[in-house]
């Protein structure tokens, strides 16, 4: 399904040799971070799991525990994220987004707007297995209003599959959205939620074009004017992902680094979660939309951060 990742299987691969090199890098005083970085970033997730297994077999130690005790700060977060098995990555991120005081709406929005229905179904199943809890119950317990309702719609993972587009229905949906927003005193949010949350991707792309013809506005402009807060951010994320998931992530990465600070958690989460899926496409969109290289922008940010720490 996805062949546009930047991280692929390393060959020739020797899990035991990698495990021994990692143990040597972390044994004794100080840590050889260069070796840890080189090995973990050049192996794919399945290979990293084999290294962890070999590490335990050879030394009776847990590789992730050792990484946590030997590394610090964002480098630790990145290496531990790389070690998390792919199948549990999203469920883990969601669990942490709704845990403790305050909910991280940004993470809920990013994951549920961008994942396919099959991926969402898988996340729900893994969540139940790993945490013995119902993801929908957890999310509805921490959110409210139309934001909550759109999240619940997306959690049903019942978006229409792509097929032949019915131009009559395209016209109808575009008119309904126009009447629910621009033509109405107030906004009928429910119409936006139902249409954007359930219609197929190819259908919605046509609806957006038709909407522009009817109203003279991009659908994003209407959402921006007619809604606010977390609902607005979620509706916009859904629209952007319908248009192009890689472009959505390129924008997410750009804004995680724009300005003085860096939203390291978002940067790490997106880079790791998309590294074997579509990071090549994301890089292409990044260059196209922001006239910068993603690689260069990350480098500049990291140098800036390191200088900041030393200064």
Key traits:
single chain; disordered C terminus; 311 residues; Annexin; mainly alpha; 19 helices
What does the model show?
By secondary structure, the protein is mainly alpha-helical. It is 73% helix and 0% strand. It is built from 19 helices and no strands. Helix 1 (15-26) crosses helix 3 (45-59), helix 10 (145-155) packs parallel to helix 15 (229-243) and helix 14 (219-226) runs antiparallel to helix 15 (229-243). The longest helix is centred in the last third of the chain and has 17 residues, at 294-310. It is elongated. The model is unreliable at 305-311 (pLDDT under 50).
Distance between the termini: 46 Å
Average residue-wise pLDDT: 93
The helix count comes to 19
- H/E series: HHHHHHHHHHHHHHHHHHH
Percent helix: over 70%
> Rg to the nearest angstrom?
22 Å
Structural class: mainly alpha
How many strands in all? 0
Stretches where pLDDT is under 50 for at least 5 consecutive residues are 305-311
Overall 3D geometry? elongated
Largest sheet: none
Beta-strand content bin: under 5%
Protein name: Annexin
Keywords: Annexin, Calcium, Calcium/phospholipid-binding, Repeat
GO biological process, one term: calcium ion homeostasis
InterPro entries: Annexin, Annexin_repeat, Annexin_repeat_CS, Annexin_sf, ANX5
